[in-house]
Design a protein that fits this description.
It is built from nine helices and 14 strands. With about 250 residues, it is of the alpha+beta class. The strands form three sheets. The chain has a seven-stranded mixed sheet, with helices on both faces. Helix 1 packs antiparallel against helix 4 (about 35-55) and helix 7 packs parallel to helix 8 (about 205-215).
Length: about 250
């Protein structure tokens, strides 16, 4: 299986994501947590296409929820990372697809259909954006870069603690950013647009592809306490270009 074939499949989601009629069909899953007909249709499309491409590989998608898988190799898909953005036509939404194999992510693809950017990586082969090799930012200190934040909008009881963290980081870096899509923030850290990103309470489909793409670009992804990330376990993540990781860990 070639990664270019996977990328071509993921690109087929573009007309679905840009369909405003489907984006207006909204179901509430929880506080500030939504699913649209776009999410459902993209997941259906890609699950079927991936099965045609590699029928031996199982499938785990956001809209069916996290559950135990019987095998050791499967796709992890977020059909629309940034659903709230999509509902409001705030054009920052991505498709995030990772391939999990025997305890690690071995392939990752993040597709931004609004800017026609595809970030991708295979384990041991570096990270790429639209055919060009990418690398994490060279910044040595937070004062040299900007940092993306995630507000954990589904758990607003964390707001006080989170905004204290945001303030501590804001005071040390040039500025902070908030896109509303974890996958995009990880991809932007991988290509050097930002120095890092952190957010509490993420799900595996939020970060599976991005953690590989960033690692292959020379960056680093851990939990808030510096421990390794199990790609099948929900939780907060801290991502950086690697050089800023210690400084960020102290602030979090």
């Amino acid at each position: 299986m070639e990664i270019r074939d996977v990328i071509e499949l993921v690109r087929q989601a573009k007309p679905l994501i840009q369909n405003r009629d489907m984006a207006d069909h909204i179901k509430v899953k929880g506080p500030s947590d939504y699913v649209t007909q776009v999410d459902m249709n993209v997941q259906k499309l890609l699950s079927e296409k991936l099965y045609e491409l590699a029928p031996e590989i199982q499938f785990l998608g956001e809209e069916e929820g996290l559950h135990a898988m019987s095998g050791d190799t499967f796709w992890i898909l977020d059909p629309v990372d940034g659903t709230t953005n999509l509902i409001h036509d705030y054009q920052h939404s991505t498709v995030s697809l990772g391939l999990y194999e025997k305890g690690e992510i071995v392939m990752g693809v993040i597709y931004d259909p609004f800017r026609e950017e595809v970030f991708y990586a295979e384990k041991g082969k570096g990270s790429w954006r639209n055919g060009e090799r990418i690398h994490a930012a060279p910044a040595e200190t937070l004062s040299e870069t900007i940092i993306a934040i995630g507000t954990a909008p589904y758990q607003k009881e964390l707001a006080h603690e989170n905004f204290q963290r945001f303030e501590r980081v804001f005071l040390k870096c040039q500025d902070i950013r908030r896109t509303g899509t974890a996958a995009m923030d990880l991809a932007y850290t991988a290509c050097g647009r930002i120095g890092g990103y952190f957010e509490e309470r993420l799900q595996p489909w939020d970060f599976a592809a991005g953690m590989l793409i960033l690692s292959e670009a020379g960056g680093k992804v851990t939990r808030f306490d510096g421990s390794p990330v199990n790609p099948l376990e929900p939780g907060g993540i801290l991502a950086s270009n690697g050089k800023l990781h210690g400084e960020l860990l102290e602030l979090l």
